[in-house]
């Protein structure tokens, strides 16, 4: 298994977060999307909204399930962000 330097990983995550930031009109959905992605990349055993929310420090999954966050991220990813993510 390859060892990844934490600083390199954090830098790459910051690049990804910056790439998708324009997909959100407000800071709150952007922060939720970042927390969602951090949860997906984490070592938590289950990756459902409840566990992702708990990992982010939320009491419930409401923000992780918000249709506006997932719909907007999906729409922007298909259009503007996809070429940037292929690297």
Molecular structure report:
The protein is an all-alpha fold and 87 residues long. It has a domain at 46-87. Helix content is 72%, strand content 0%. The chain has 5 helices and no strands. It has helices spanning 6-21, 27-41, 49-56, 62-65, 67-86. α2 (27-41) crosses α3 (49-56). The radius of gyration is 13 Å and the shape is flat.
Largest sheet features: none
Please mark out the parts with pLDDT under 50 across 5 or more consecutive residues, or reply none. Answer: none
**Count of strand segments:** 0
Strand content: under 5%
Quote the distance from N terminus to C terminus.
23 Å
Integer-rounded radius of gyration: 13 Å
Number of helices: 5
The computed structural class is mainly alpha
Order of helices and strands: HHHHH
Q: Tell the overall outline.
A: flat
Give average pLDDT, whole number: 78
Helix content: over 70%
What's this entry about, in short?
This protein has 87 residues and is mainly α.
Topology, please?
Layout lengths: L5 H16 L5 H15 L7 H8 L5 H4 L1 H20 L1
Helix pairs in contact: 2-3, 2-5
Q: Can you tag this structure with a few keywords?
A:
87 residues, 72% helix, flat, mainly alpha
């Amino acid at each position: 298994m390859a060892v990844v330097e934490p600083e390199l990983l954090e830098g790459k995550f910051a690049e990804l977060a910056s790439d998708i930031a324009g997909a959100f009109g407000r800071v709150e959905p952007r922060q939720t999307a970042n927390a969602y992605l951090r949860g997906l990349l984490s070592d938590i055993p289950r990756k459902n909204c409840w566990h992702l929310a708990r990992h982010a420090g939320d009491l419930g999954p409401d923000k992780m399930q918000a249709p506006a966050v997932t719909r907007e991220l999906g729409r922007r990813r298909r259009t503007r962000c996809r070429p940037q993510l292929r690297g």
